[in-house]
Amino acid sequence: MKIFLKHTLLTVLAVMGFVNMQAQESSKKRIDGVVGVVGSYVILDSDIDNGFIQAKATNQDVSTLSRCEVLGALLENKLFSHQAIQDSIVVTNDEVNARVDEQIDRMVEYAGSIDNVVKHYNKKSYEDFRETFFDIMKENLLASQMQQELIKDVTITPEEIRQFYNNIPKDSLPLVGDEIELAEIVIKPEITKEQRQAVIDQLNQIRQDVLDGASFTSKVYMYSEDRGSLETGGFYTIDKKSQFVKEFKDVAFSLKEGEISKPFETDFGYHIIFLEKISGKNLELRHILITPKPTQAAIDKAKNDLDDLRIRILNKEISFADAARQYSQDKDSRQSGGIMTNSRGETRFELNKMEDRTLYSMVSNLQVGEISATTLVNDRTESYYKIVQLTNKIPEHLADFSNDYMKIRYVALSAKQSETIAKWVSETVDDTYIYIDDEYQNCTFKSNWLKK
């Protein structure tokens, strides 16, 4: 079904930032060929080339994809970025750096090392790579926020979902790949009250040092464990809509200008905040994050406890679901007996599209009812041990309204959102400076980029 290809293409080219990082290193034959301009944004012919490269790198089928389609997606992305600036949508450097860190972590996971990533993109150094990637990410975050602003009020009813499904020709129903359903049990190494208090005492001492005249920024570089803000000295600009956890925003907005908070806890660890400036609805602040660390003995005990629990389940002394309810320390899945959900709240995971490579390695060879080995999981905030049971396997099949309702709902809503965006693009193109090179004047675009 075309709607799937369309959203995949936009995701690859527009949202994820896979655009022109190799453009400057492309062949001299095409490198500086400007093929499009939207407002103040320029598109090079090499950007289109790189669009194909990146689509292939993310396992997209490009055999039927034309240069005109890729150019159309790039033009649309530039229009979003251009209009975001016109509408005073702000993307802070802190937000960009945080997203850059996330993407670089993913790249390193696949490439094996940061040196391999830098080499892949033909950059001279990590600093050169990061600077280029920063500019790209900032543009794409602007585009993404503009799109979110356009679709934030779009909703869909069950009847609209049914109509969407019924309007799909039976011979065009999308194929859903092999899916699995999973349950988990998580055991975390114990952090004692003494270890927590030690971190609180350390932050209190840092706070007192700053009150006595020390530099808060210097303390950030010395102690903070927030990688996303370390390069900027712990600096963030936030408002009440910023995507920070509630506890962090509650404390930040309770401070007076120049005040330093007392230590407080979030899911990430313990923080102190220094509110530098109140600028209208925005707060300019710096913070220090320190996370209590378990002892090696606590880490070993967590593994041994989960190993023992796994044996009890295998010996049928207790069911996996009951064990999850009694012992698992994952607050999201514990009450449901360990049932796992994906990022859209669905209980089914399409095996070949799992982004969590640790989870994939744990379950890819399991049969229904089998339980994975006890595995150490390292995420951005903590480390813990996990076992996973494969509870059900659904073979590849054509989408079914009842069994695949959540997937159909997602696609139907995406289609409605796309219609909203398409209408906005059509109306906005007429009021925006657009240039298309002669080579692409015969393209059939879905939007009126040629203004004919």
From TrEMBL:
<dbReference type="InterPro" id="IPR000297">
    <property type="entry name" value="PPIase_PpiC"/>
</dbReference>
<dbReference type="GO" id="GO:0003755">
    <property type="term" value="F:peptidyl-prolyl cis-trans isomerase activity"/>
</dbReference>
<feature type="domain" description="PpiC">
    <location>
        <begin position="177"/>
        <end position="277"/>
    </location>
</feature>
<dbReference type="InterPro" id="IPR050280">
    <property type="entry name" value="OMP_Chaperone_SurA"/>
</dbReference>
<dbReference type="Pfam" id="PF00639">
    <property type="entry name" value="Rotamase"/>
</dbReference>
<keyword id="KW-0413">Isomerase</keyword>
<dbReference type="InterPro" id="IPR027304">
    <property type="entry name" value="Trigger_fact/SurA_dom_sf"/>
</dbReference>
<keyword id="KW-0697">Rotamase</keyword>
<protein>
    <submittedName>
        <fullName>Peptidyl-prolyl cis-trans isomerase SurA</fullName>
    </submittedName>
</protein>
<keyword id="KW-0732">Signal</keyword>
<dbReference type="InterPro" id="IPR046357">
    <property type="entry name" value="PPIase_dom_sf"/>
</dbReference>
<feature type="signal peptide">
    <location>
        <begin position="1"/>
        <end position="23"/>
    </location>
</feature>
<feature type="domain" description="PpiC">
    <location>
        <begin position="280"/>
        <end position="392"/>
    </location>
</feature>
